[in-house]
Amino acid sequence: MNVQHHKLLRCGVLCVWIALCGLAVPADSFAGVHAPLDAAGLVRAQETDARLTHGPVIGGVTSQGAVIFVRTDSPATVAIRYATSPDMTGAQTSETRATAEDADMTALVPLNGLAAGTEYFIDALVNDVVAADSAARFKTFPTEDSQAALQFAITTDFGAYGEGDQPPLDTPTNTFRQIDAANPDFVFIGGDFDHRNPHTLDEKRQMFKDLYSPDNPRAPMPEFVPLILRRYPVAHQWDDHDFYDNDADRTAPGRSFAAQAFREFFPTYPLPNNGALYQSFRYGQNDFFILDNRYFRDPNHETPSRSKSMLDGEDLKKAGQLAWLKRRLKQSNARWKIIFSSSVFNLSTRKSDSWVPFPREHDAIVNFVRTNNIKNVIVISGDIHAGALDNGTNAGLPNVVAPGPNLKYCFTVPQDWPGTWSNGIYGSSKNVDNAIPCNGFGLVKLTERAAKIRILDTEGKTKLKMNIKWQP
Ligand SMILES: [Fe+2]
Known about the structure:
CATH topology of the largest domain: Purple Acid Phosphatase, chain A, domain 2
Mean pLDDT: 88
Largest sheet: 7 strands, mixed
Strand content: 15-25%
Structural class: alpha+beta
Bound molecules: fe (ii) ion
Number of helices: 9
Low-confidence stretches: 1-46
Helix content: 10-25%
Distance between the termini: 69 Å
CATH superfamily of the largest domain: Alkaline phosphatase D (PhoD)
CATH architecture of the largest domain: 4-Layer Sandwich
Oligomer: single chain
Shape: globular
């Protein structure tokens, strides 16, 4: 029996039963929705057969709006209710979106006209009925001239049970509890959201579904959904293992599938129209640039040449990512300019899948920043499954590397390759395969005078520290 026939039969039986009995069906009769039904609710009964399966996930947050991801198990109309009090007094309802098979029942619902620096409480409506367990909250960003200090958390390189290159996990993590305890203004989710190496559209979609499920047996981190996704604005970039394969680049056969699933499942800031996923956003007086280090990346092993590029391997020039980054950096009047580059920027790591195979482009970016007198730039990375901090002495620009939240092993580079870092390394690369874990997260506080950066372990203990003074 196919699904449609099954649903029709189920509804038919239900409708006849209600009509014959003339009884109100208890709200909880329908898993996932509170659906008060009465004689006039026959149509409602059919409509509310759809159930919320994933979300809300809150992204694309600005001083005035947000984008909310939700997914249902069958075609439905969805909307978001939002209010400034937790009891939803005076709640408003967003415009509606339809979920459908062709986007795997996902929807990205925009919220517009929000007040700056304000906490909002939301839940999801599926066919006009509030979905169970859909309550979430977040705070909008302050106005763009606000001098308010901010703190954001960095989590990257998630372990998932026995997937791809990631060995099985056997212990849960406290990382997300510690991030929540720090109460950041937003959470940046770096690349390798997990390490399953998705090759098909279905595999990539399944990755998000697993990560958005609080009871996911493939990634024992039940706090991630309730303590992070339901409480904080998130932004995200991918890296090789959630894009396609280890060290993947623009030649990856699954490139378009991966981008499609990302666009379906993650609420982003506006994306370019060239297929890649680089984005920017502003928080108060600070600009954030999220690079896509994979979509246009030339193969690492390609012979070095003038045109070899991580950001613009297809030579789009003015319409490409490298030109976008330079243009935006030069135009920026921000106090701090934060660049998220999943690939480690510090060339002394000597890792083959980093900026090391792209020294010309790395140096061109550093020189562009210097010659244009662009100050207060910090590059934030992941990928090496360890923590590391450099004030720019070795990396050209200050480079922050956050560790994974729940990986079994430490470091993805051999023993003699961690590189030179002015403010240290958290983790040991000795005997990589058997090294003890070095899990944790990053916390960055930006004030008018300084960037205060810490790498913490899973119990919230500070492992590395770096303060960078703001340059006038
Ligand atoms: Fe990774």
